Amino acid sequence: MRPPPGRPSRTLRAPPRRAPPLIGPPPPPLRTARRGAAAERHSAERIAAAATAQQRTAMAQENARLRSEARRRRNDGVRALVAYARRRDPRVQAHGAARAAAAEAAPSRAHAERLRALREELEALAAEEEALEAAGNGR
Hints:
With 139 residues, the chain is mainly α. The protein contains 3 helices and no strands.
């Protein structure tokens, strides 16, 4: 059975879309997508039924404060869980050991570089002194 004219066949579907590549800075770390609505004390109906605008504003501000506190508590819990998992991950421990070994080697490289720079400076001063002595003896 053929599709009616002007309509594509069901078998001719477009390929699935791929996710676009990440462009720009990475997303902020450990932000929750939850709104924290469970922490609200006043429902939207109760806020709308408030007698005055000041009461509505106060209720909305209290809800916002409670949502913010709930979001912060949840993010702190997620951070603690991630820290716990990282401390026990053998890959992280191996990486830490490799960084410690590199840190031990780094001061010796920096020290050698500093010694080389000081030797070059000393040689330059010695050459300058010799040039001054030669100019003084040539009078």
